Amino acid sequence: MASPEYHIPEARIEALREDLRHHEHLYYVLDSPEITDAQYDQKMLALKTLETEHPHLITPDSPTQRVGGKPREGFLKTPHSRPMLSLDNAYDEADLRAWDTRVREALPSSEQVRFVCEVKLDGLSLALHYAGEPGTHASLLRGITRGDGTIGEDVTSNVRTIRSVPLSVAVSKLAKAALPNTFEVRGEVVLPHLAFQRLNEEREAAGMAPAANPRNAAAGTIRTLEPNIVAQRRLEFYAYFLLHGMGPNAGEMLLATQTEALEALRQAGFRVNPNIAIADDVDAILGFIAKVDALRDHLGYEIDGVVIKLDSVAQQRRLGFTGKAPRWAIAYKFAARAGVTQLLAVSFQTGRTGKITPVANLNPVLIGGTTVARATLHNADEIARLGVRIGDFVQVERGGDVIPKIIQVIEDATHPRGATEIAFPTLCPRCNQPLLKAEGEVDWRCLNTECPARISEELLHWGARNVMNIEGLGDAMVAQLLAPRDADGVAMIAPTEAPLDDEEQAIAATLEPTAKPTGKPTQPPLIRGIADLYTLSKSDLVALERVADKSAQALLDQIDRSRSTPLARVLFGLGMRFVGERTATLLAQHFGSLDAIMAATPAELEAVNEIGPRVAESISEFFSIERNRNLIARLKDLGFTLAAEKRITTDTLAGLTFVLTGTLPTLTREAAKALIEAAGGRVSGSVSKKTDYLVAGEEAGSKLDKATSLGVKILDEPALLLLLEAEGPTLKSQE
Ligand code: IVH
Hints:
Layout: H1 9-29, H2 37-53, E1 76-79, E2 89-90, H3 93-105, E3 115-121, E4 124-132, E5 137-145, E6 151-154, H4 156-159, E7 168-170, E8 182-190, H5 193-205, H6 214-222, H7 227-232, E9 236-244, H8 258-268, E10 276-279, H9 282-295, E11 303-310, H10 313-319, E12 329-333, E13 338-350, E14 356-367, E15 370-376, H11 380-386, E16 393-397, E17 405-409, E18 435-436, E19 445-446, H12 452-463, H13 475-482, H14 503-510, H15 538-542, H16 549-561, H17 567-574, H18 581-591, H19 594-599, H20 602-606, H21 613-624, H22 626-637, E20 657-661, H23 669-678, E21 682-684, E22 693-696, H24 702-710, E23 713-715, H25 717-725, H26 728-733
Parallel strand pairs: 2-12, 20-21, 20-22, 22-23
Antiparallel strand pairs: 1-6, 3-10, 3-11, 4-5, 4-8, 5-7, 8-9, 11-12, 13-14, 13-16, 14-15, 16-17, 18-19
């Protein structure tokens, strides 16, 4: 604020945008943020406030404009500047050598040949068009899917929400060569494993069938008609081509070599995959392939091979294209991570919320270097869809981090069909109580809150990294804590199956207890639920198998430390159905204390952004169960705070008058009103000089015109939510 030009709103706005772009690049492209999320939010709020005061200065490439596109009816078909081709494949060394020979034969023997090796990302390709002022900057104009290669679909509103896609590029930054003001970037959109898992957890919680793999999920997401949903999915874009944008050269490579293009893209702020190598011959290519293959399980996203390209664009031109693929590039494909094996049996697992998951026990088969002996069958509907029977030969697929799953039943002469139908149980496999399936849901559930399987899963969830983060409260420990003990205090563990989705637990389950318990169970289990964890003593723990003095103390320290966990995580840890991390955070922010949440009626719960009737009902039901209320009472006695650090208080918006108009992207009119009123604000029906803010959504009419003419500040939904999160004094100091 020191320099005088900050008095000009244009200059202040542009400076804030540059600053935000810089921090977004650090965060979303380089993974190395330099400021906290709260500091970022402050800057964003400052920009939003300025932009609402000067709406005529809002440009589509402003960092405030990523989300906000309205739901769409469909996507416009759009032709590509040049076809988006596919690649020929190589499956082994011989294929690569044959290609290398073809390339060299097509070039004068005096010329040196250099290849660039890149990872082959397993997502979907996109073309991004940029246009702008010569020598200054270019803005994202549109994003188009590959489609049939010639015509794709314009998915711009969704592409804008991908944070690693720059909305604005400083053209002067683009390499040494003078660049045209229009260019095209091509690359791949992927859904990282973590985002994929989160998506599937949400889908399962909502009773929907999980997405089969990250590529399908990414493809489905980019074609979603609601940009708001796309924004939450955390897609990533990796750039790998830089092309001319318009005119006679449209679609041609912009720089002399692929390596220069990748470097220019990186400098311009795009995410470029760091796993790249230059190779002069096939041996070097094979070396890179081996390296990437070893990395494959640790990348955090799916790849399915390596792409090898001739580096020189002049040489690429000489080689040209076959019908549908360039001769100057080839895709080395990794062996598919799928195999055929026999389904030996199906077992059923009871999860934390009582959900019963059928698990296929397979004749162990080596798939991509890992032995797969089990795969998920998801639910009864999935078994019916596959039409699978015990004894069938099935095709099994696994991704890097993805739980192995059965793709289909193999039906041919060499693979006879099994005869035994899979009988879905009617009783819980663990506690024998009847299972129930609610109307409109796919899952059968055990409703017994005392079911040992559920309690064990509850404890594992409580200890999880994103909940209480109690290291050492793994599968083996929980099993010992919950088992009855013999006269010597040795836990008598019934053999159970490791849950599928946790490598750590799977390993723990393979470790045989060293000392077998003797005699009859004469002592009760050490604990019966979450609250009992906090009464454990060191002597209790050292009596257990494989627990030394030091690890017992470490576990106790971590349990003790968990008492100061923030409310949102405690809420998430309680394991209410449909209450994931995000919903828990919203609840904590809105109500401020667990008492307030417990006291809330379903209607009051539904006043919270994103909480619908089903979630509200699930929360109310949770608190109506005596066992859960007892747990909460005990947590209070144990010193849990159960109140949010920062919450929306009744005076956050005290003294401010709001008017609502138009349709907001996620909040209903009533929900927005309730939020404002809960924060102490007043909602009035008509705009006057006394109105402090107009909250405007899509198709805002005369109120917007009146507010504009009266100089009333205008907020969109994200700006309103930011305002609600801001503390009262911060808000005032910004006025
Ligand atoms: S270059 C002329 N580079 O693989 C077409 N493609 O099988 C050149 N892909 O449709 C594509 N990573 O979706 C290229 N580093 C990479 C890639 C890559 C993934 C995908 C892309 C393409 C498909 C071809």
